[in-house]
Amino acid sequence: MANTEYDVAIIGAGSGGYIAAIRAGQLGLSVACIEGNAYADPRGEPRSGGTCLNVGCIPSKALLASSHLYDQIVHRAAEHGILTENPAVNVRKMIDRKDGVVTKMTKGIEYLFKKNKVDFLKAQAKFAGKVGDDYVLELSGAGATSRINAKNIIIASGSKPRQLPAVVIDNEVICDNVGALKFDEIPKRLCIVGAGVIGLELGSVWRRLGSEVTLIDAMAEFLPAADPAVAKEMLKAMTSQGLKFALGISIERIERTADGAMVSYRDRAGARVDLAADKVIVAIGRVPSTDGLALDSIGLQLDDRGFIPVDERCKTALPNVFAIGDVVRGPMLAHKASEEGVMVCEIIAGQAGHVNYGAIPFVIYTNPEAAWVGKTEQELIREGRTFKSGQFPFSANGRALGHGETEGFVKVLADAASDMVLGVHVVSSAASEMIGEAAMALEFHASSEDIARICHAHPTLYEAVREASLAVDKRALNI
Predict the structure, then answer these.
(1) How far apart, in whole angstroms, are the C-alpha atoms of residue 478 and residue 396?
(2) Do you find a cis peptide bond into 165, omega within 30 degrees of 0?
(3) Are 422 and 383 in contact (CB under 8 A)?
(4) Where in the numbering of this chain does the Pyridine nucleotide-disulphide oxidoreductase dimerisation domain appear (predicted)?
(5) Do 371 and 415 belong to one domain?
(6) DSSP character string of 23-58
(7) Model pTM?
(8) The domain containing residue 273 runs over which residues?
(9) How confident is the model over 382-419, as pLDDT tens digits?
């Protein structure tokens, strides 16, 4: 351990924590970033990157890419004049590739720590009181304990999977996101509890590879947080790909059996359904992870949902203690956590620091993808705000036709009086990349006219953003 006293100590080396550490180092602060979770490290050592990099965003996207390539070969190659015979999947190699991507990125983070003079402390951390104005953290790991002091603390301990009562997660047959990313074979029958982002993405992976996938959800409405047009289009797309949905259900039990698992639930009509599956993935959301931090030792209280209360600048009720990412209010998104980490470090360094929570994009990485930023139509209606809307389909986009991926649209919502863009919603094979232009438009308070006046390259998918902006005033050029 290089030091025992720091300007900043960060608990957690996930998307919020490691970015905060790098920014703190850039600002000339002495910084320690502490991580005690080994995740999937083959040596069993604590590993940087958090849930997102190790058992979430990055590995799932690697598997989505592999399964999408296989799906294209099997179902789409022939229409391009590319003939293939008997394509097969080596699941072990697919998982190994995914693991290789993760390992490369974790090593990259540790390189960036060294580059920015960040001490990466591989240990479990908990509060042990104060000494003067400094906070004391007790570190434990590898059979030893030590203590460090820091003037400022950033809690970035992330989240963990929400559990179903009386359901045992063994990550062999009944899995959370960790087990779902390391199947050693393609399950014939897969049941996913939760039809949200995680469920749709993991369901897409295994459906493309040949699984019979059923998603069940207690919510009666599909993707209730999305704009209604997005939810409708995504349900149509996912159903057409063979994903089966049972919404508005109530689970009675999930039990492991001799040949897999049995999921028993009541459908929305109250009828009992027993669904046999080879694998079950429980993906019903996540909850803040603050276990073992001993927050009471410094008098920091959680709210009634287990989050650490903070203000708009991520300050807690205690001086010089901040919290970011999944342990605080707002969407549990890696990029939101990273932005908060940068903001907090800049505030500590005496700079302004800010996060525009109204311009944080959301993405679902299925195919087609769904992405949105800003307000949905139902939010504007609830707020009583008058707005106008423009929509443009990819079926009228030349690049989409050339790709053979014409599902989806771009929808732009703008204020009825000022024309300021209030929200942009995209369903497309490249929605995750296209939403960047929309986020910038919201950040700079652009009008739909501003977007419509920008020359967009042709032929491109993102021309549809311009066309939808033109459609706000009923003057789209290509429909």
Answers:
(1) 7
(2) no
(3) no
(4) 360-468
(5) yes
(6) HHHHTT--EEEEE---TT-TT----TTHHHHHHSHH
(7) 0.96
(8) 174-284
(9) 999 999 999 999 999 999 999 999 999 999 999 999 99
Q: To which residue do tokens 């789209």 refer?
A: 476
Among 257, 284, 311, residue at a domain's last position: 284
**What's the confidence (pLDDT) of residue 44?**
83
The burial class, CB within 10 Å (0-12 / 13-18 / 19+), for 328 is buried
Please tell me the total number of residues recorded for the chain in this structure: 479
Q: Give the CA angle between residues 16, 2, 124 to the nearest 5°.
A: 50
Amino acid at position 97, single letter: R
Domain harbouring 305, CATH code? 3.50.50.60
Side-chain half-sphere exposure of 75, counting CA atoms within 13 A: 13
pLDDT given for residue 414 in this prediction: 98
Q: Cα-flanking dihedrals φ and ψ of residue 187, to 5°?
A: -70, 140
Please name the residues in contact with 65: beta carbons below 8 A apart, sequence gap of 6 or more: none
Residues involved in catalysis:
458
Chosen domain end from 320, 355, 390:
355
Say if residue 186 is in the same domain as residue 256. yes
